[in-house]
Queue: 2 jobs
Job 1
Amino acid sequence: MDQLSDQEIMKPIVHVDNSSNDNNQQKNNDIEELSQIEGEIISVVAESTATFKCLHKNEPELTIDEKRAIASKLLHKSPDQFLARFGKFLNNDLLKYFETDDMNYGVAHYVNKLRRYFNNASRELDTKNRRYEALKLLVEKGEYFSETAMMRRNPLLYENLVGQYLTEKQKKERDNADTDNDDKTFVDVLMQGIERDHIERLMKRQEDAENEVMEENDSDSESDDEDCKLKDKSDLFKDNCQWGELPDGGKISCSKTKSGNDSDEIETENPGNKLKGKGKNMKIKEINILRQEFVTHMYTNFLNGHDVDFDYSTVDDNEAYDNVELRTQDEEEKYFDSESPELINSPNVNQFQDESEDELDKYMNSLKVH
């Protein structure tokens, strides 16, 4: 017995490292979780409206499996290019897949950009600023916001504010502004006729829509709804009342009232009567105000995304329109002025938005002055 005891004493003591097993189990769990997220990423992208390749004529659409294969190959080959191409079809939770300790600069860049894209407040602010920058460029180029181009987009409003006050000579000059009379061909004349017919049809549709809404409002006989009815008309057709057209068909001048004997009073008149005031100069002043109101309305319409024939995706998702200097300055201020992440997202964002709005307001006000 003593000998057996001695042998037992001589046996090596084996220590079981439970922490090592726990670490291995955790690694396996992490790998499995990443694999699941990766599968979800590929599925989301494959089932999205993303463009995977340019298809030739009569070439069949890619199947879901083919799209999954393309997405998976790009994801493993170049994660940053994958994010650049398909990142906007993901979400904040799926972006965690790319946030690793060894992620490179390109991946970090796109992750940060997509985080901002998925934040509604930041995205709305970026969209507003990009449209503002696009507006300034389009105004500078002149074509999109030329008088004839704006007339084509909203002929009824143009007629109410500008067209009805033009002389025949001015109308002719306007219609020939885009074409040199010496070089005008039969095709040019034909295209002008087609365009004129299009404008007239659009104006007719706008008039019908206006009359339909006004008839619906007039059919409401309850006196309690009278204020609401007037508000609805003002909201939908505020152009007509605000821009010089009264509901009863009269005109209203937009000149400001001044003190003294030379004051310019706001006056109304029925169709057929001449504008009252200081003769021709007064009329020109009022016409210029109405014209500027029309231009301002068209600018605002563009900024609000109401130009139905304009592809806003070329602006809203285009970083080329970003005011990088202003954004960098704002983000630096947020970093130095805040003590915690919570503070970053509250007052300074509103401050940046207010500053952007102030800049836009200044620009729009300058339009009215000039």
Job 2
Amino acid sequence: MIELDLTVWEKQLRLKREAGVSYLLDPIRNKWLVLQPEEIVRQLMVQYLLQEKHYNKNRIRIEQGLLVNGLSKRCDILIYNKAVQPFLMVECKSPKVPITQATFEQIANYNLPLQVKYLVVTNGPATFCCEMDYETRSFNFLSSIPEYQNF
């Protein structure tokens, strides 16, 4: 597990309230979204990737559509490298949802058509990052999420 406190980035989030409903701004899509626990985790992770890991905002896609075994799916966060190839996928869960084998199976399934190098799963308090090796059909857990400048 990666030692990562996403709450450090809470001050970067933009919130508003209209007609009794709370909203959160997604800075990637420039869209106000209904405030939900999973969405908070997603936006905190985006801030972490932008501020701490120096990821390029223009290379981040939120809820990217995918076709997996003939079914339409959406991955939470997909990052493209400088060659505009997908290289990192993030699956976000609500803080109350534990990270389980099913979570890893979900992101692995979403990754089938893309075969990105890095898979990240997080619920806020718990974050895991795997580096995939498709030649040996194996993976290694990493102690941190890679810096964008390395790609």
